[in-house]
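A further point concerns the way the authors explain their paired sequence and structure data. Nothing conveys this as quickly as seeing an actual entry. An entry of this sort, consisting of the sequence and the corresponding backbone structure tokens, reads as follows:
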Amino acid sequence: MSETPSLTALIEDIRARGEIDCLVAVRQGKLESWSAQRLAETALRLAEGLRAQGIGPDRVVMMWAPNSPAWIAAALAVGLCGGMLMPIDEQALEEAPRILRDSDAVMVITDLEHARDLRAAGMAENVKIILLDAPDDAENGVFWEDLLEPLPEAVPEIDPDAPAILTFTSGTTGMPKSFTLSHANLLLNARNIRDANIATSADRALLPLPLHHAYPYVIGMLSPLITGAVIVMPEGPTGPKIIEAMRSADVSILLGVPRLYDAIISGLDANLDKRPAPIRGFFGLLQKISLGTQKRFGWPLGRFLLLPLRRALAPKLRLLVSGGAPLDPAINARLEAFGWTVCSGYGLSETASVFTTNVPDARKIGSAGRVLGEGEVRIAEPNEESIGEVLVRGPSVFQGYRDNPEANAEAFVDGEWFRTGDLGHVDEDGYLFITGRAKELIVLGGGKKVNPEDLEQAYLEQPAIAELGLLEHHGSLVALVRPDPEAIRYRGSTQVRHSVGVAIKEVAQHQPAYARPGGFQIVGEPLPRTRLGKLRRFMLPEIYEAHLRGEVRKTTVVLSEADKELLRDPQVVRAQALLKKRFPDQTIAPDTNLQLDLGIDSFGWMSLALELQEGMGVQLSDETVAEIQTVRDFLVAVRDAGEGGAAPAAVASDVPLEPEYWLRPTGVAMTLLGIAAHKLVWVFMRFYFNLEVEGLEHLPSEGALIITPNHVSDLDPLVVAAALPTDRLRRTYWAGDLTRLFDTRMWRFFARLAHIFPVDERRPGAAIEAAETVLKSGKTQVWFPEGWRSPDGELQRFMPGIGRVLRETEVRALPVLIEGAFEAMPRDRRWPQRHPIRISFGQPATADDLLEEGEGKTPEERIASGIRHRIAAMAGHERLEAA
């Protein structure tokens, strides 16, 4: 290929390669190969056919189809006849008609499905439709092969400065804008990639990304065509299809986005988790060694140490190319530790994709690399940390937005430096580091600015959070959160909202006060994103407001035959009517998630189960309830319970859950051992933490009592135990998390010694029954109403279960405030540090007293809130609203 970038020269070069492979498509487990000569000649012949159809300079051709060899041939053909290609997302069903109107396209190259969509939208009359996949459907368009003409005598000359593609921005911050990129813009970048020696003609590059975006178009299509590498297209963008293509086509280079590489690391970790402990430990050690030596010395030991794991995924894979969004440095480092070379870069559609990149022989983890070719980078108005807006100029930068002088005036500085809208800095070696998005900075009420991407990444490390998007609401920072119910259930919890709240607070306590979300809303649907995974931030405020108002998106419910049969059952009809009565403004469909969409927590389940029992005579066991996630699961359980055919699901534990087992007398030897242990705990707490006890005179001398401390640390039970007199402690019982305290014989022995009985959060009714058994026998129960340890030391919402216990037993509650334990041992510490701890006992209160003091929709909620208010008052706080 000549040094002047030219589509004409590229086609001649490809044609001269002859019968060597150029394109490989994986279809139903088989490889469909196109030679270089076939691709070049097909593009030339199709260009002649398109020219006969009137396609030439200034004529726009919309490409709306999934990746295929025919897609690439058609794209080249449009350029060869002088037309302007407008590739759009093949999933853009709603946007396609608008884009078609705005672009004045005269032809659409598409597949049969989208051709029918255009006809249904009334958009097919004024354009010519060319089908890539339906040779026998003349009603909906012309099959592309029917347009092929004889080869021209010579390859037509194409002006490098002529517009090659028409592009619409992704619209992450508002209405998309359109602009053109010339052949020179595109081919210069592709040639720069070739000159950087990232790939060679011996490589096979997997292209799982849609070609409508500039990044895969330039890096995944044009660069391999210039380099001579083979382009491999998987059958689909899913993980199994990508892995199948990597293995069957001997892929050596993978072109991806950060979310794909996150998935690869997660998949490798998940596969290791399934292995026996010795193998997990062995490969875990190898990973640590590889990661350590890679970071400290740059030695790629992972290429040898972790070769079996790498070969199992993709035997020939050597290079991972990442773009579209910043790659997490931790993920980058782990991929390198496995032995792969990772090249991440930076660019925008307006810069014809890549503008800076790391290359195999010169890369820095965490950076976006150095400038390619003749481009230049400047940092505008840098702050004290040398961070400012990234400005770029060079031959690959576009000339401006179409028919939008206002946008162009804002986009360029001095008429030549393009404002990228990204924040970053350049180090002493010329490597660019992107630190955020200037246009996406959140400006809060006090003028403070927050970079949402960095914060979001911190929250996403919490297992309970699948997705999170930050936004401004009335001057404060708030969040939209899509939880991960499976991760929450795996940790033994059914409290989705509470789990998310704890996860957010756990991260927020390490952030400045202004950068802590003041509220959040749970969403059940994925957050809106572009195909490359970027959040469409301009859509978040509307979603937040809708959830804040309690509005639920109305969807068209398509019922399967099995669902229709289920809904005909009389018992199911009554149960569904009960749900609709409780949630009149929400969509009740078989796939509706009871926790995420309807907000039913463990106590809500107890209330619902009570309605079922009283209104329908149907009783669901706690074990059955624990397995229910969707409305369909609920209705099936009701039907089976009504038929008497559903056996309770077995609890995944061999721990006895009957309270009578754990309340048996311990015997003389164990009692003496318990007294000795209490003395040791007292000594430890008194001298290591300088424990102070106040208000012990409020402790009743006899009768049943429920002690209700705040919960800030794993030290809390020891604090309470050390503060209680020995005779009271011998009559005191505790509830312990089944998943944390009863998994070994040693822990079970300790539980018996300390009067701890197991509770499974998925069986809230059983936990309450156990507490009632303790109290009705005249003993003392310690109950932490928050359920979980506070992530930041502040009072959390008190769960209504304590209200249920107090109403059922009519015993008094003793509010208790623990201070200092959080500082001594917060959630993220494994061993305590020395810090003074104080415990204060308040005045006992009856359920009626607390009912008048608290807030909430139900009596149980008001009682729990009343206890919370008393503890807050003991801490010297003002009266707090119920969470």
